């Protein structure tokens, strides 16, 4: 008889992990706080759409649902920057055929739940709030949100995929004698704003790009949805700085702010004032912790163990990669869970910390540097190097279009910073980089010092 | 009528803060988990003695009890290093008249409680465990540890001085929308070992020094007590490395370990095996968080807001400095608590983070570098500079013998590192530093770039 496995949280990571385990014949029970989104409609609370990139797709493939999801996904081949005058510039993410994909959080979650639900050895229980786990006994306590019913569930193993404010993690924190934990909030909040389709049902902006309004200390972005709309997201300081959310109170203040910084977006958001006032301002948290497991009985995954800020579009992708890696480890360790969980806990935490750092660093890139000519020049030169030496992969590509461990990508990123610090100070580099023997010399010398990358 | 103030936790910081507030005429209620240590005897659970240095003494002076405490304190004028052959070397902390003082945790705590208890406007309640606070209403819930009685206490303001595992902090974490928090454990534990007086009642080692057995990856230290004994503390990895606590199980393993690394200490610890087995192995935690307050209603202080590892001997000292600074702010803001608490929260957190960093860094210094000739040379040259230019204060002196904000000391420490990196690579520096014009030139140039220190 296969292990009885309990999954707490049927968000993106929990429902994918449920599919992969059910496929292998484990007895899987999934408890989720919300009601069944297939009946109740999906109530997210968080971003309406997300960018899926290679790490996510690999996991989709493993679950056998890549094609289904791809049909509902919109490729974004680069960033489209909007300056204050409404002028647009485009910056490709990689090659012609490389893209990140805008997917609907609700659509994706429902699809995963639907597929998981086809397995007889898997059962969903909706509306149950996990109150905590008894780690050493691999049992969990639940309360039904409507009836108040209390329930204790025993299992051989528990996976906590209950998100950034994980109840399973809270229990680990108490059960483990030395649990390292940090939660850190940005001084910035975000607010979503709806950009409906045009009257003839088309996208109001180029749908094959991620739109950015970079404004130095803050920014707005927009990702396309399949119904022709976009979801815009404003990232802005909570307080103190000008501008900040706490300085935007009256209609006049809000309109003046948009007129100064996002004039070209005003006609795109018909209910701007109403949405600005009624949509919540949400916070941005980074969670780091270790260890992630209690013996071979409890493991936390996804946002529950490593929530990150959204600026690299890697939160879901890294959670999905958790599933891929664990699934690979099941094969490598022939189903020995003590070994699987130990190996995952041992190798994965540094990668989670690395993508947390990269995501924080990318906020500055997106809100500020993408509008900086030096930054654009670096991108161009990097793309050129990549053409000559395919082994040279720009940092963004390593994170987004490869499966190189995040910690190696971060290290590589630091090394690339050093390379471009040398190159970008060369005289007249803006104009003469193409056939500049000095650029070539610096680059070749740098390449000689680089280790061969682990995977690609 | 003066504010009603509730203090949660009558440890070192809470009982000192109670004295300072009672002195000013506030209505103070102090709730403490343990029973009255004056009746029950002091049950610490943590280090038996502590090093008090200038920041602590300043607070004692403010409370009017410096002389009383000093009578029970043993000056330690430097480090005495024990090598594996039992050879001793001495390293002064500063001038002849500078010392840190070994004080008894229990004695000091009882003294503070006794003094606080003399005020009619102050009342202690022992045996009450705080279960949490309702921050926005400045009220706290308690449970009596023997009777189980539940009690809710209302106040105008609550100070949480309930230590590293603070219940008040846990409530702030829930009440504040964006509470940044980190708890981080060393992979090292510590174990106390008793070194009794000699048969004629004398100290078995020089009492006017802090003894260190530096062994690279681990160490033992010992501080004197007034009864002629010493308290030794072994700091060692929990597991994995050799040696580590989890490798020391049998009597033979323990004895072999001591024979190899601490041979000269074996005759000093008559009950070595018994103590090693029966005394707990305790963990070492660093806590950082922000903010420290809920409006002007709740403030956490001491270990509750900034627990640090003990390697700089500044945990209690920094908590006592919290009291000094707040007491100064009461004067500066004429008792306006909203301003006092905001000013403290605004300026003090960076200093707490700095001493946390310094304490972590000092572990490596104590267990490893104090045995390194280059390090000793640096100390000597620094002392020499300090004689010529009294404005040049070695980092250790800034932390221990000054009231310079910790964050400035940390910065100064980094700058001094850079200075000595230049000096210590000079040819023949071991022998020729005294009248070396190059050393002088480097030093003078460096001094020109230094800011004038804030306070001293
Ligand atoms: C603004 C924003 C934009 C983002 N954009 C991207 C992007 O473009 N690309 C990307 O890869 N990532 C993105 N992310 C990150 C992504 O949303 C998360 O990484 C991802 O949702 C994590 O999935 P999860 O399943 O671990 O957690 P969640 O999606 O949070 O799911 C947790 C589930 O557990 C349930 N639950 C919670 N508590 C309990 C309980 N006590 N008992 C039972 N169930 C419980 C919840 O109801 C939920 O269903 C973004 C995040 C934000 C905030
Ligand atoms: C091994 C070791 C050596 C050290 N050496 C030094 C040194 O040499 N010099 C130095 O300056 N510092 C040293 N320290 C640090 C020092 O011990 C602490 O910084 C200091 O004790 C902090 O004082 P506090 O009052 O904030 O917390 P604590 O001393 O921990 O006091 C907290 C009080 O609150 C009570 N309490 C806890 N929870 C509750 C609750 N829920 N309800 C009610 N009451 C509660 C506790 O019983 C206790 O009395 C050392 C620490 C360790 C571990």
From TrEMBL, chains A, B:
Gene3D superfamilies recorded: FAD/NAD(P)-binding domain
TM region positions: none
Reaction(s) the record says it catalyses: L-kynurenine + NADPH + O2 + H(+) = 3-hydroxy-L-kynurenine + NADP(+) + H2O
Any one GO molecular function term: FAD binding
Pathway: Cofactor biosynthesis; NAD(+) biosynthesis; quinolinate from L-kynurenine: step 1/3
GO BP, one annotated term: NAD+ biosynthetic process
Cofactor needs: FAD
Annotated family: Belongs to the aromatic-ring hydroxylase family. KMO subfamily.
Name listed for the protein in its UniProt record: Kynurenine 3-monooxygenase
Lineage of the organism: Bacteria, Pseudomonadati, Bacteroidota, Saprospiria, Saprospirales
């Amino acid at each position: 008889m296969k292990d009885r496995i309990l999954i707490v949280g049927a968000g993106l990571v929990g429902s994918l992990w449920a599919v992969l385990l059910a496929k292998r014949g484990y007895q899987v029970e999934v408890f989720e706080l919300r009601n069944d989104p297939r009946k109740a409609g999906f109530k997210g609370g968080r971003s309406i759409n997300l960018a899926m990139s290679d790490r996510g797709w690999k996991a989709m493939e493993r679950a056998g649902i890549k094609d289904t999801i791809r049909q509902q996904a919109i490729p974004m081949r680069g960033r489209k920057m909007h300056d204050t005058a409404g002028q647009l510039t485009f910056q490709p993410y990689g090659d012609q055929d490389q893209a990140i994909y805008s997917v609907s959080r609700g659509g994706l979650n429902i699809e995963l739940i639907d597929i998981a639900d086809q397995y007889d050895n898997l059962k969903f229980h909706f509306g149950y709030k996990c109150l905590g786990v008894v780690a050493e006994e691999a049992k969990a306590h639940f309360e039904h949100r409507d009836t108040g019913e209390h329930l204790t569930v025993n299992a051989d193993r528990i996976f906590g995929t209950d998100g950034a404010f994980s109840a399973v993690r809270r229990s680990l924190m108490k059960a483990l004698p030395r649990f390292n934990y940090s939660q850190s909030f940005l001084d910035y909040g975000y607010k979503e704003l709806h950009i409906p389709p045009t009257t003839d049902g088309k996208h109001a902006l180029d749908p094959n790009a991620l739109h950015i309004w970079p404004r130095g200390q803050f920014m707005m972005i927009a990702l396309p949805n399949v119904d022709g709309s976009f979801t815009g997201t404003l990232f802005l300081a909570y307080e103190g700085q000008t501008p900040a959310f706490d300085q935007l109170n009256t209609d006049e203040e809000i309109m003046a702010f948009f007129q100064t910084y996002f004039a070209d977006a005003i006609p795109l958001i018909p209910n701007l004032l109403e949405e600005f006032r009624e949509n919540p301002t949400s916070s941005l948290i980074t969670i780091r912790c270790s260890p992630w497991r209690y013996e071979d009985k409890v493991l936390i995954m996804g946002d529950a163990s490593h929530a990150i800020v959204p600026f690299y579009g890697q939160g879901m992708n890294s959670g999905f990669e958790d599933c891929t890696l664990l699934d690979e480890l099941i094969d490598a360790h022939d189903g020995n869970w003590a070994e699987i969980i130990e190996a995952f806990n041992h190798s994965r935490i540094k990668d989670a910390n690395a993508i947390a750092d990269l995501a924080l660093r990318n906020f500055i890139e997106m809100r500020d540097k993408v509008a900086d000519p030096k930054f654009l020049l670096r991108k161009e030169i990097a793309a050129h190097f990549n053409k000559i030496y395919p082994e040279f992969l720009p940092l963004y590509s390593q994170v987004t279009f490869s499966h190189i461990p995040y910690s190696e990508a971060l290290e590589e990123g630091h090394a690339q910073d050093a390379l471009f610090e040398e190159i970008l100070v060369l005289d007249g580099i803006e104009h003469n980089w193409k056939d500049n023997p000095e650029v070539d010399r610096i680059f070749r010398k740098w390449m000689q010092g680089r280790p061969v990358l682990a995977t690609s």
